[in-house]
Every structure is written in structure tokens, then in C-alpha cells.
């Protein structure tokens, strides 16, 4: 009987002590998680402060890329009526490639789906220039190519570059 009494007394001491220990562990863990969340939020703010200007700059450059490779803009910048159509086509394609390659690092700061829209807009612009060139004969001039590109652009309606610009603007607005 004495052993059961001792076990009972030990249990009377250990059960409340265990409950106090479990409560203390629970609150310490909760406080630790709260501090961890607070530290993560602070780290995110610091990262945002560092990366936000770079991200905004990347969106600006990507929009500028889309504006510069828009067929109308391309033709106006590279207009040379004396060139043969094939030479003008090569000039336009080289300008598109050069603009894209110059800005390719911007994808680091732009979401993957939006950058994919930028890339597709570039590819579609290349297709438009190729299509216009294919529809001309070998004696065509740069003016003929320009007219054909303008005609194709008129038929398309909203250009892929314009769609990409809208997506870029929407995404950059979501940063604020």
C-alpha cells in the first residue's frame, strides 16, 4: 500500500508539472513562430526595397522593347526606300533580334508567364516580317515591304506586342 501511495503522490506532482511544462513549450513555440514570421516579413521588406527598383526598371525596358519591335515603329526607324525588300527584311529582323537580345536579362525580374508573352510577341513580329517578305516578288523595294507589313498589321487588329505591353503594365501595377 505504501508503494501505491508513493506512486500516487509522485503522479500528483508529475501530472501538474507536465501540464505546466507542456503549456510553457506551447507558448514558447508560438512566440518563436511569431518572431520567425516577423523576421520573414522584415526580410521580405528589405528584399523588396532592394529589388523593386530593378523590377520596375525591367518592366520599363520590356515595355520599351515591345514598343521598339512593334512593326510600325520598326519600319519608321529603319525606313530606307532605296533598299530592296530583301535587304529591308533582313534589317528589320536584325533589329528585332538585337533589341530582344539586348533586353533578355530583364526576364530575371519579370514573371515567367509574362516574359513568355514578351518572347511570343517578338516571335510573332518576326513572323509578320517574314510573311510580308514572302508575299513580295524579288524586285520589290523596301517601300513595298513596308506597305505589306502595314497591311498585315491592319488585318491583325491588336498586335501581340500591344497585348504583351498590357500584361507588363498589369503585372507592374500588382507590385504596388
In brief:
By secondary structure, the chain is mostly helical. Helices cover 83% and strands 0% of the residues.
**Helix amount, in percent?**
over 70%
What fraction of residues sit in β-strands? under 5%
- Spatial shape: rod-shaped
Radius of gyration: 32 Å
Mind explaining what this structure looks like?
The chain has 6 helices and no strands. By secondary structure, it is an all-alpha fold. The chain has a domain of 122 residues. The longest helix has 68 residues. The protein starts with a helix and ends with a helix. The model has no long low-confidence stretch (mean pLDDT 91).
Task: Give the tags.
rod-shaped; mainly alpha
Lay out the secondary structure.
Layout: H1 2-69, H2 71-77, H3 85-103, H4 112-134, H5 142-156, H6 160-173
Amino acid at each position: 500500500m505504501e508503494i501505491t501511495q508513493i506512486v500516487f503522490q509522485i503522479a500528483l506532482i508529475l501530472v501538474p508539472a507536465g501540464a505546466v511544462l507542456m503549456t510553457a513549450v506551447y507558448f514558447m513555440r508560438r512566440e518563436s513562430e511569431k518572431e520567425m514570421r516577423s523576421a520573414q516579413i522584415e526580410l521580405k521588406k528589405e528584399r523588396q526595397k532592394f529589388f523593386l527598383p530593378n523590377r520596375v526598371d525591367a518592366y520599363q525596358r520590356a515595355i520599351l522593347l515591345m514598343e521598339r519591335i512593334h512593326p510600325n515603329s520598326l519600319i519608321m526607324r529603319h525606313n530606307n526606300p532605296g533598299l530592296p525588300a530583301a535587304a529591308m527584311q533582313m534589317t528589320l529582323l536584325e533589329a528585332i533580334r538585337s533589341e530582344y537580345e539586348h533586353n533578355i536579362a530583364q526576364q530575371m525580374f519579370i514573371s515567367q508567364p509574362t516574359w513568355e508573352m514578351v518572347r511570343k510577341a517578338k516571335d510573332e513580329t518576326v513572323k509578320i516580317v517574314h510573311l510580308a517578305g514572302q508575299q513580295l516578288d524579288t524586285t520589290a523595294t523596301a517601300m513595298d515591304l513596308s506597305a505589306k507589313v502595314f497591311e498585315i498589321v491592319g488585318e491583325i487588329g491588336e498586335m501581340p506586342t500591344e497585348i504583351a505591353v498590357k500584361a507588363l503594365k498589369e503585372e507592374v501595377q500588382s507590385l504596388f
